[in-house]
Structure formats: structure tokens, C-alpha cells
Amino acid sequence: MDTILDISGLGKTYQSAGKTLTVLDNINFSVEAGSTNAIVGPSGSGKTTLLGLCAGLDRSTTGTVTLSGISLGELSEDKRAQVRNQYVGFIFQNFQLLPTLTALENVMVPLELRGEKNIRARSLDLLDKVGLADRGHHYPAQLSGGEQQRVSLARAFSNQPKILFADEPTGNLDAETSEKVVKLIFDLNREAGTTLVLVTHDLELASKTQRILRIKGGKLVSDDKTNA
Amino acid sequence: MAELPFNKRKTSVRWLFEMAWRDSRKSRSRLFLFVSSIIFGIAALVAIYTFGFNLKKDIDAQAATLIGADMAVHSGKLPDAKTQKFLDSLGDRRSQERSFASMVYFPKSQNTRLAQVKALQGQFPYYGKLETIPENAGTDFRNGKKALVDQTLMLQYNAKVGDSIKVGYVTFLIEGTLTKAPGQAGIASGIAPMVYIPMQYLEQTGLMQKGSRINYTFYYKYDHAIDMAKLTKSLDPKMEKLELGYETIETRKQNTGRAFANLTDFLALVGFIALLLGCVGVASAIHIYVREKIASIAIMRCLGVKAYEAFLIYLIQIIGIGLIGSIAGAALGTIVQHLLPVVFKDFLPLSVTTDISWAAVGQGVILGITISVLFALLPLIAIRRISPLNTLRMSYENINLLRDPFRWLVYAVILAFIAVFTHSQIDGWQACTFFTIGIVVAYYILVGIARLLMYLTRLFIKSSWSYVWRQGFANLYRPNNQTIVLVVSIGLSAAFICTLLFTQGILIKQVSLSSSGNQANMILFDIQVKQKDALAALTRKEHLPVLEQVPVISVRIDKFKGKNEAETKKDSSMNHSMWLFSNEFRVTYRDSLTPNERIIDGEWIGKAPAGSDIPVSVEDRFAKGMKLKIGDKLTFNVQGTPVNAHVASTREVNWNRMQTNFIFVFPKGVLDDAPQFYAFATHVPSKQASALYQQHVVRAFPNVSMIDLGFILSVLEELMDKVGGIIRFMAMFSIVTAIVVLIASVRISKYQRIQESVLLRTMGASRRQIFAITTIEYLFLGGLSAFTGILIALAGSWLLAKYNFQVPFTADPTQPLLLFLTIVVLTIVIGLLNSRGTLNKPPLEVLRRDV
Hints:
The complex is a heterodimer of chains A (about 230) and B (about 850). Chain A is of the alpha/beta class and about 230 residues long. Helices cover about 35% and strands about 30% of the residues of chain A. Chain A is globular. Helices cover about 55% and strands about 15% of the residues of chain B. Chain B contains 25 helices and 21 strands. The longest helix of chain B is centred in the last third of the chain and has 54 residues, at about 710-760. Chain B is elongated, with a radius of gyration of 34 Å. The interface of A and B includes residues 48, 75 and 99 of A.
């Protein structure tokens, strides 16, 4: 299988009150295209920082991130934005929908940015897939948490990403809703053949992926395959 | 830079507009509130511009009635035979006017007053008319011993048509009330009310004395078409030689246009200050708006929106809302301009129309958009730096929107814009630089004071205070506080009004002080030599002191620094002194200095030495202006006789005192026998004594004119009231802007504070406690702003008093106190009105609706 994401010697430090704070230290791993992966670890272990760097939301202090053959460290923020738009889908713990856009418009944005055609029909189709075809004209504030996360899912898949990054996708949902959302993520992922990288502290969710990377104190401490 | 394995995405302008529209959905009313701060500034400018355009158009249309003839020729002296021959060669129809200041006396009410007497001969005006009540009085008064009396005088002394008025030794029948003369603005009649008399009676009045200051004007009407520009060009050398000045319809048009262009430019600057105040509000509001949009911008960036695209989305919003605000401002300005001819009526020599000026509207709209975008740019440029990482963790980055290096470029562009705009309103880069620097300095003083007060407040708060007090005070300096923007906008407006009040007070006080104690408060002039002793006796008989008896001689300058007029004209370095040759100077002679004079340079010589070179003393400021030095030669023309002199000394003169002061003082022994008249100074203890004294003097010596301090004060007060009225009208736009900024800021802080207020209520805070916290916050915010503004006004007025008016600074505390209380109450009321949503509704309802 091809490698979609390659992380090599990745490190991230911050200056805080005159001191250097190491959040990530020499992380190395690669992700195969079409695989499902979980990054787990306790709070403050650096997993969200790692996700941000993998997705090109930030620059690393040391090491490289290569996404679909593109070395992100060499790109400007605007070029990284273009990479995100072409290759990456996002799901966030707090959904991160644009509050002034309707559900349908939120799903349309990545496609509009790409200047594609039949945007409305395709977005409605995606909303249908997540069971929200009739809620397209609603604003995020008019939707429940589970519905918002489903809109977020539809948006994440709208640009047919090669890789999907999910940050605690069920963190703000109740158990029943979480189950439905998780099922949707994995179903859509399988259907689209997308690579999934999710950050969670929920080991049950992590166990649904093919691989679990454990991170602690900014270091990768284990890399295990599961039976999923 | 690495090439991406896919095509570079092009920015879709349509999509940017679509996103700007979508994103603004829930913020449009707030965005409009932000931009409403500029509405009144734009309204002020559009109103002034429209007024200016209409005025220019009306001056062009009514120019002939402003001058009343095709040409008016002026002379400061009685024309000699040669000049008269030249004057008689001009025009097809001729009129002439002699005007001078003189006391007039109303026998019925026994009142006297200094007036501008105009003796008229001929059918002037040829264009327009002397507007009178009754209507035909303007022509009928010329047929007998009749006069037209200014309506100000008629009203003041309760005179009626058919009453009589005494001018000099002649009593005239009042034929009509003069309401308007060609080219005369209403204010002029308040200062020097006019009395028209037929010229054939001028001689009999006895006011045509040698040495009297009389202006001679000759009006001409051409009955055939004539190229006036060509004619005046050919007449120019002759006129110059004969020391005549002239005006034509065209020159009057230009001069009036220029004078009012200066006025409207000045007022546009006052309007511009209101606009700048509003812009401070816009910048502050957009800063907060962008802060609230960080999450949305981060999401967009996450989805692939480029930095400049995010910036453009919000720029489009600002342009759109700036356009709406500017159009609203322009519409309001177009309505307000209908008031301007009323506000300016006393200063206008013509009637002004109130047509809509699309040019003014266009200028206002473009200016509004430009300036709202410029000031919004400061917070907007920070959008480029909002990282997509904020979607994961807001705390990952310390987002400081004011740390962008591009902000210096924006500051430079704003400064350049202010300078260029100012330059378009006032001539000369120096004045424009002063204005721009003044604006920046005033802004930073206010910001500095606001910061200092915030710092002091922080120190001042004690942990032992109750929560309500601590919270109320702390709101002044906590993050996202409105202290600076309100102190700047309200403070500047308060400073504006207060400086106006203080300056008005200082000027009135200056005049009042000048005659305190036993100093002179009445000057009598045009006293003939033979009347001198009799008048002194009459004065003493009234138990009044004769404080000064000063001889006054009219002289002209023939040679300046040894050069005559023609030679001076050729010397380009002496162009500034050309006016001296056409001017008539009043000089005196004496053997000593007065207590108000001090020698600055050279030597005071009180007695003329033998020889023909006379040592004169020159007033210091005049000498500096004319670059006159000790020893410079001057040749005076003392009513036909040349007198050679040199500058022996320069004197500092205290002009603030009510007394006769002179630029040139001759030593005794030179002018003693020259034709002269006398000026007296006396001190009258009361208004009643003054009125009685004036009556007695005018009856016994009708040719003698008087100026008393009460008269000067009343003229000054009237003038200050009228000028102050216009400035107050323009300042009103700044005040309303400040109120709008206040409302906008309070509304914004409401959005910021709503969560914590709701949280406090959720935790059990009573309505009363929230009410108290809000009241305390706005009490100190209003108090702080008003106090800062008044402080600046005090400092500014003190500087004006010390360096400009050179009088001790005193201020009546009532008005600033009233202003302070008004601002504080207004701030609290607006603050509370805007917070009532959180006070009256259940917390959950507020949370669902607003958050």
C-alpha cells in the first residue's frame, strides 16, 4: 500500500515565560493510504498538537511532515491551505461549523473554494447520506450537537479528501449519538476509501481503528495494530 | 517554493462577495451600528459642501446685486481736480457715496450711537436695490432732508418711520427702515449700523472736517455692452497712479467666492473632526468584531481559504457597510444643508438656495467609504494572521491583533489621507501639517490620559471594597474595555465645547478688564482744535476725568526706507510694504512715553532736534512686520508737506488697554502746527452716566464721535454669539458622533459582557447588583471622559489666554460643571438602556437569544 502521511523526527516547542516547552519530541511514523489510525494519550500528552501538524495547521519546530508526497514544512500558509482544501477533511470535537452559514452552505464551502460544479446537488446528497437532507436550510444554532457533527461529517467528505483528521469527534456527544456518529464516520470512510487519523482518549473508539499510536509526554510510546 | 501537484486555485470574486454576505447575516445590524459613527461626520461634510456649491452658484448669479453697479472705484481721500476729471470720464451713469463713522442722535428717545453714515448721490444701486420699509423709501429719501436708518438702530431705539434722526448738525426725517443694502451681510448692521442720507446735505452736517476718515466710492453703470476686464486692464496704471482702488462684478464675484470658500473650508475641517471621531469608533468596533470572528476565520482557513481571501471577505463587508453609512450620511447632510442658510444668515450678503448637489453627495460618499475602510484596515489586516490552528485550540496562540507590522503602513496612509484632505481645505502645507500633527497630538494626549487613569484606577481599587464596586471599577480596565475609545470621542467633543465656552469668556473678560479701576472706558475722537477746551470743560462739569488729550494728525507715506512707491514696486524684496503707500496713518506727537509703552530698541527722543531729519518712534510689531530697523529713512506726507524722518526707536505698546495708541509717534516741535484733531479718553462710572454724557456731547459737539466700552462689549458679545452659534452648530455633529460612538461602544460591550452578566445572574446576582455594577462602570466612564475633555480644554484655554490674548486665565466653573454632569448622566442612561435586556429577562432567554 502507498504511504499517504510520513512523519519524520517531528518536534514542537513553545516559548513560555522565557522557558522552552517541548510539546512533541522526535515523533516518527507513517500512515498507509486507506488505513484507519488512532492517536491516543492522556490530556496534555501532545496528541492534538500532533494532529494539527499532520494536517498542516501549524509548522513543526523540527522534522518533516509529508502529506501525499508534499513536504508541508516548505510551504507557505496559503499553499498549505490549498493542500488542506485538496487533500484533507476535518472533524472537530466542537464541530466548528460557520455559525452564519446554513447546514447546506457549510457543506458547500470546500467545493465552492475548489470552483467545482453541481455543488448544491452534491452537498445535498452528502447531507442525505448523514440523514439531514431536510435540515439543509437550518443554521448550526438550530441543530442539536449530534446533527451539527453530522453536518461537519458531510462537510469533511465533501471535497473527497485523501485523508480525514478527526479530533475527539465524539467528545461533545452523548453515548447514543456518539455511536451513530462513529458508525457514520467509519461507513463514509470505507465507502470513500479515505485514510482516517483520529485523536481520542476513548479507547473503545480507538479500538475500532486498525492501528493505535500511543503518545505520552510528547513522545510516541507505542504503535500497535488492532484486529479491526 | 515547492510546486504543488495540482493546479493553483484561482480566487473567485463572486464567492468572496457571497461569503461576505453570508458571514454578515447575524451581524448586519451591529455592523451598521459600528458604521453609524461616521454618519454625522459625513452629514456635516455633505451639508457644508452642498452649501458651498450652492453659495458659489448663487454668488455667480447674484454678483451684480452684490456690488450694485458695473464698477465701483474707491479712494481714501477727496479727489483732486485731476482725479475728478478721470473719475468723470468713466461710465454712462454715475453715483457717488461718502461714508464715515459718526454719532447719530435720536431726539425722540434722546439716544446716541456710533453709526456708519453713507451720503449718497445718484441712482445707486443700478443692480438690486436698497431694501426698505416702506418699499419706495429707498428712492424717495434722496428727494429731501430724509434718511434711511438701519433696522437694527430702529429696533434698538424704538424709532418709527416719520421720526427724526440727527447726523452732525442736521436733523433728517426717517423716510424708511433699511433692511438690506447691496453686498451687505446682516452681521455688519449689528456692528456698524448704516444711515443713508442724501449727499447734498453732507456739507451742512459739519462732519466733513479735514482729517476726518472718509471713504469715497464712485459707482458706474455702463448702458452699452463693454468688456470690463479689458477696460479695467487699460485703466489699471492710471488708477494706481491716482491711488484709486476698484471693484467690478467679476472681482466682487471672485473676492466674495474666495472669502466664503475659506469659511466653508474651515467648517469642512470642523466637520472632518467629527468624521475622525467617528472613525475612532469604527476602528474600535471593527477591532472587537474581528476578535469575535476569529473562530469563523480559523474554520475558513482550515477548509482552505487563503489569508488574503479571508481578509477580502471582511473588507467587502466593511466597504458595503461603509457605503450604506456614507449614503445615509449624505442623505442626512442633504437635509441638514437646508438649515445652513438660516445658520449663516447674518454673515451672508446674498440669499442662498438649497438645491441638492450631487457633486457634494458623491464627495461625501467616496470620503465615507475611504475613511471607514482606512480606519477599519487597522484591525482588518490582522485577519491575515489568524491561524487555522485556532480551530483546535484558541489558547494555542496569543492572538494580538495590534502587533502586525503592516499597521505602520496603515498609520502612514491614514496620516497621509488626513494631511491631503486638510490640504484640500486649507492653503499651505505648514497649516495642514500643524492641523494633522494637532489631531495626532490631541488623540495621543487623550489616549495617554485614558491609559494613565486606567492604571490609576487599577491601583486605586481595594480588595476590601464590595464586589459590586470592584466589578464596576474593574470594567474600566479589563480586557475589551471601552475606556480609550470613549475617552477619545467624548473627551474630544467635551474639549471642543469647553474650549469654545472658555475662549468666549476670556475674550469678554479681556475687554471688561481693560477698563477696570479708573482706566479709560470711553474714547472721544474727531474733536476739532477749537472744540478741545470746551469739551474738556463739559467733561469736567459732568464730574468725569479727562484722562488723555491726544492730538491726531493724518499722514501718508511718500518714501519707505528711502524709496518711493515706484522704486519699492521694482524691488521684489519689498513687495510686502506696497500697501503702506495707499494707507493713511493717524499719528501723534508728544515729549514722553505713556505708561503703556516701553522702548525695545533705539532711543526715545521727545523733542525734535534742529534739522530736517525727524526722529520717530515705531511700534515694535509693525516694525518687525515691515522689517524696519533703527536708522531707516521714511518720508511722510503731512497733508501735502513732505517730512523726512528716521526710525529712532521701536516701542512695545499694550494694545489691550482702552486708550489711543499709535504706530508712529513724532517728537514735539514738528507737527504742532499741522492740521489736526484731538482724541479724548475718560472714565464713565456707569451705563446711565455714559448715556447722559453721550447725549450732552452729541448735542453740543455733533461732529464728535464716541466709543464706549459698553458698546464694544455689546458688539463683541453679539459677534461671539453669532460666530459661536455657527461653531456650536458644527460642533454639534461631533457631539452627536460622540453619542453614537458611545451607544455603539456600549452595545458592543453589551455583547462582550452579556455572558458574564448572565453568569452572574445564574449564580444568583440580583437585578439590583447588576444594575449597580453597570451604573458604576458608566458613571466612571462618563466622568472620566468628561473630566479628560474639560482638562484638555482648561489647558488649551490657559495656553490661549497666556500666549495669545496675554491675559490672566479665569474660567467660570458653572458651564463646565453643567457639561460634566450632562455627559455623565447621558453615559449612564445610555449604558443602562442598553443593558436592560440582561436585567429584565431570565438568564436562559438571554443566553438562547444572544450567545
